[in-house]
Every structure is written in structure tokens, then in C-alpha cells.
Design brief:
Blueprint: H1 2-21, H2 28-41, H3 47-59, H4 66-74, H5 76-81, H6 83-112
Helix pairs in contact: 1-2, 1-3
Amino acid sequence: MLYGFFIIFLFYAIGNFCSWLIQGIVPGNVIGMVLLFIALQLKWVDALKLRTVAVGITTHMSLFFVPVGVGLMISMQYIGQYWAPIVVSVIISTILVLISTAYVQQKMESWNE
């Protein structure tokens, strides 16, 4: 279990370092997730050893949204002031995520055939 935490936090730290190197263009946690995904695909990291930690983290995922909710409540004055650009960006990003997810899903299904 300790190995799983170490690997996850190692890739998180590597991702944050890479993000710092590129001056924060891409968030460190995203870079870390991509690097961990690549390491899992290349079998550099044993997925079975991460399973217990990954299941535990995703089971308690709602706890990770508490700081975000508090941050939103603190930022209500900005949200009220800039609600229109926020709504437009949420709609556009949702559509882009739906399209890209559908595309990736279709590609992955075609690989299995």
C-alpha cells in the first residue's frame, strides 16, 4: 500500500516539476496523470500494486471536492461579476470534452475489433 502512495505522489511531484519548468502552461497534476498513464501502459509500474490505493482514493473522491467548494464560496463576488464568460467557457469546454471523449471511445472500440 505504501508503494502505491509513493508511486502516485512521485508522479504528482514529477508533474508539478514539469509544470514549473514550462511555467504552468499545463497543470502539474495533469502532467503527472499522463506520465503515470504512460508508465502503466509501458508496464514500468505494476498496476496491481496501485489498485488498493487507487480504489481507496476514488471511493473517497467526494472529500477532494470540499476545498473546491470552499474556494467557490470565497470567490462568489468574482463569479457574480464574471458570470457570462464563466457560463460560456463551461458550455464550450463541456462540448469539447464530450466530442473528444466520443472520438477516443470510438477509436478504442475500433482497436478491440
